[in-house]
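dumping these here so i dont lose them again. two proteins, back to back, each one seq then structure tokens. dont judge the mess
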Amino acid sequence: MDNEEIKQKLLQIENTDLEFTVTMTGKESTRVNGLYKPETHEILLHNKNFKSDMQLIYTAIHEYTHHLLTEEFLAETGGKLPMKGSRVHNQAFWAKFHTLLQKAEELGIYKIDIEESPELKELTEKIRKEYMEVNGKLMQEFGKLLAEAHKLCEKANIRYEDYLDRVLCLPRNTAKDITKLGAVEVDPALGFDNMKKVAMLKKPEDRAAATQSILGGKSPDTVTELMKKARSGDPREKLEKEKNRLTKTIEALQQRLQYVEESLEQL
């Protein structure tokens, strides 16, 4: 492929109104496979790094994602570029990138075909069945045990937080995530981290849809971004979040006020 062929393939995946260029540098780099220059809208690909066209296209789509998000940012800010040093590989980036990869696969422009490697296919099944799914089931059982421990702590007049902190030495947020898995129906085939994401959804139908998306091949980042968009339209959830934020602020201010008052009394 030459530079123009790569550019046309990218435009097939998703069009852009912002002109850009693609340049294969003819170089090898140990630091990066490619980069995008937002000021000049250039995609540079260190093509000596790649052993196949699929590897090259993968990186080209990665850099093109930066271009498309830059185009969106320019439209939103009236032509201002993102600040230098700002985080570019955020969740929104990965969600967009994986969506473009899926489009590229549907168009036959890109593919990740583990069928070509029987050893990799066999290993993948082993990882999924013997590790991800087994670990998911263990975490579900763990969550139920933590919920039972919570009840027993209350019965014995023991602070559950102290039990977590100094008996189990288990971070509270971790315990909260694991306990949630024991309280809702989540498919352990997702693996622990994906189970945590899905368990955050309140409605069973939303959990089922997210589970189907992940098991169907959508990346966790893509599903998380879709979940965020779905939740952003719920006015009740927005108000609940604001209430929680204000409550925490008020509690912090009250603690500070108490400290200042006590300090004044001692002067």
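---- next one ----
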Amino acid sequence: MASYLDFEKNIQQIDEDLANAKIKGDEEAVKILEKNLEKETQKVYKNLSDYQRLQLARHPDRPYALDYIQAILTDAYEIHGDRAFRDDPAIVCYAGYIGGKKIIVIGEQKGRGTKDKLHRNFGMPHPEGYRKALRVAKMAEKFDIPVLFLVDTPGAYPGVGAEERGQSEAIARNLYELSSLKTITIAVVIGEGGSGGALAIGVADKLAMMKNSVFSVISPEGCAAILWNDPSKSEAATKAMKVTADDLKTQGLIDDVIEEPISGAHRDKESAIKNLSDYVLNALNELEKHDKRELAALRMQKIFKFGAFSE
């Protein structure tokens, strides 16, 4: 059953009317309602606020990492474990082919349904998840295979066990190692990019975001709680934090924005997946023109520009 956000109420009503018209076999009504749906969709999604984009980034029907992996990878083979503690299901790693090119995909997976969400820890990785990601990335480096990171997490898991096993060290280690990894790397924020939990697999030659995704140092609710002692002011915090893809592209913090279908990735998964696949293939073709040393130098150059200021 489809899920609808507050600002999608009119779309929900038309969808329900359209479903009823199809059941009744009223072809004339179906044509009229389909036109109305197209108009309403254009109207709603062309003028989204930052907070509405945040809601879309968290939409439960939005394609997750495994949806992309299953759709774009051929001969996919899953890689498990950090070889130290356990396999963290919140991070998935696959080797396979995209467009005939070898690639390794590392993604954060939120899970669908109560059991799967609990199994995936709602997409919040433990330190062993980040260590698994780094182990697989280093393996890709060894065999000169490009790496695609799919970022989608509310943040790294903040539990006692995760802290005991070195959550901050695992994230810091990934930032350090991925910044100088000697193979092609591409990172795409497909939903939520939450703080260090996202950044730990977000260091790459190309960092892109889906149009309706967000990337922030803290959740808007957390920001509102700290600044105003009121988590309900998350909408104001979202606007102030500039967390959307367009804002971050303007600030030079990401390289590209990947367009989504006008109605959002959650209503047209196939088009969203195709757009991401096309972007990855184009980015691979571009990055393959550089040798390993040049890639590493360009990546470091980009990183050093972050936070630069002038008086």
